[in-house]
Amino acid sequence: MESAADRLGSVLEKIDKASRHAGRHPQDITLIAVTKTISLERVLPYLQAGIHHIGENRVQEALIKYSTPLPFHPKFHLIGQLQSNKVKKAIEFFDMIQSLDRIDLADDLNRHAQALGKVVPCLIEVKISPEQTKAGLEPDQLEAFLSQLKSRASLAIKGLMGIAPLGADGESARPFFARLRKLFEKAKLEILSMGMSSDFEVAIEEGATMVRLGTALFGARS
Do the bridges between strand 191-194 and strand 155-162 make them parallel or antiparallel, or are there none, so unpaired? Predict the structure, then answer.
């Protein structure tokens, strides 16, 4: 069986190759290990092998899984949709919220962050897929949304996050990533989080500064 270090090494090689192919530096790409449904026992070897960022989709799962002190200190990213009743717990636990996509959520985040004396780093999730089931802010609303967020002093808007359509693997995902990159460049932000296990190399070529990988590291989920 392939070890965590071997799997991570293979992924890092692909990140390196994609970065250099695009004339970029591999060290400019942040790798997030998505641990949704993955047990802590399976995650620990990856932390030991050098993973520094963990992504979780659900607040409650993350709180239970990482309830005991870890020998390592990764940064935790919430990459799934956030319900209003979970905002306070999310702010207390996560280092970054990647799924900000509506003003009422921004208000909840800002209010709880202010009460806790924190400034919360956030990414705006933009809907780059035509699928109705996909969450995210409509692209044509981004400029106005960014303007609204300026008055929420306890939120630090760091960048954009997007998800290509289901089944749009590799090259077929490129147009969606290219569109998000253009929005990112226009907004002049720092972080562009796009690309998952099936399309991260293309995402890097299109400008991703952060990729979110689960299957590529842990294998197919049951």
Answer: parallel
